[in-house]
Specification:
transmembrane; globular; OB fold (Dihydrolipoamide Acetyltransferase, E2P); 5 helices; 28% helix; five-stranded antiparallel sheet; alpha+beta; two-stranded antiparallel sheet
Length: 268
């Protein structure tokens, strides 16, 4: 029988001492995670960080590719200053990606210089529904102010395509570089998916998100596959209705898989 080979590091080709691939390297290359990494909090943290950084780098690339306006006769060109700032920010994002320094963090969440604990924030495709106003349609696909592809998935499909569904209290709100996003840290009282997940999670949100989360807010948050940000959330009086449809959908969602944002029955 041929001895089992120790997995190689996808960047250097080296094999790790314990026979496992590095979680960050697997997340960066997009290769299918080995069985021993799939439930590893460090791997889930790396997937979330890589997804967010790719989003930001994509946006920066689009901004840099735009045709600059005709420069005005000023001592220092505003366009040049803007391009320089964008290039500097892109370099910072790349350094964070390659150096493993991530600012998405929380206890039991995604690692940063402030927190060395692993992340339980998982990743997701866009699913129906964004934030929910209290009194609105409690199920995905209802009349909501913003969110993903409204009505494209059933409640069971929405749950199947979610990587994280938690309820709890907002512990901290920290400004992130660029002044367009905040890092929300949530103390979890109930973890619907994964069941029995981490007691504290964190995730980024746009500062213009509505309802905007504040310290002390009670919130129910859903994050879909391959997304770093919540795709569906509600606060305060809207939580009971939101909780009700999620609990109803959980049993049916267990028999579904999610590929490219479409929920389908599992084989067999």
């Amino acid at each position: 029988m041929t001895p089992r080979e120790t997995p190689r590091d996808p960047w250097t080709g080296d094999r790790s001492a314990d026979g496992t691939a590095d979680p960050l390297m697997v997340a960066i290359t997009g290769e299918e995670a080995p069985e021993n990494l799939r439930d590893d909090p460090a791997y889930r943290a790396a997937v979330t960080d890589v997804a967010l950084l790719r989003e930001q780098l994509h946006g920066l690339g689009d901004a840099l590719a735009q045709q600059p306006p005709e420069p005005e006769p000023t001592p220092v060109s505003p366009v040049r200053r803007r391009r320089t700032a964008l290039l500097a920010l892109a370099a910072s994002c790349a350094a964070a990606l390659l150096g493993g320094t991530f600012w998405l963090s929380a206890s039991g969440g995604i690692g940063t210089p402030d927190s060395q604990e692993a992340s339980k924030s998982t990743v997701g495709d866009e699913v129906p529904g964004g934030e929910q106003e209290p009194g609105g349609d409690p199920e995905p696909g209802g009349d909501q102010e913003s969110g993903g592809d409204s009505g494209s998935l059933s409640p069971e499909g929405t749950v199947a395509c979610a990587r994280l569904i938690v309820e709890g209290t907002v512990a901290r709100v920290d400004a992130l570089p660029g002044a367009t996003e905040e890092r929300i840290t949530l103390d979890v009282s109930r973890s619907y998916k994964p069941a029995g997940g981490e007691r504290r999670v964190s995730f980024p949100m746009d500062v213009g998100a509505h309802p905007r989360l504040r310290p002390g807010d009670r919130a129910l948050v859903l994050v879909s596959r391959d997304s770093a940000r919540p795709t569906h959330w509600t606060t305060g009086a809207g939580i009971p209705a939101e909780r009700a449809w999620i609990e109803r959908a959980l049993p049916g969602a267990r028999g579904l898989t999610c590929e490219s944002g479409t929920a389908a029955p599992t084989d067999g």
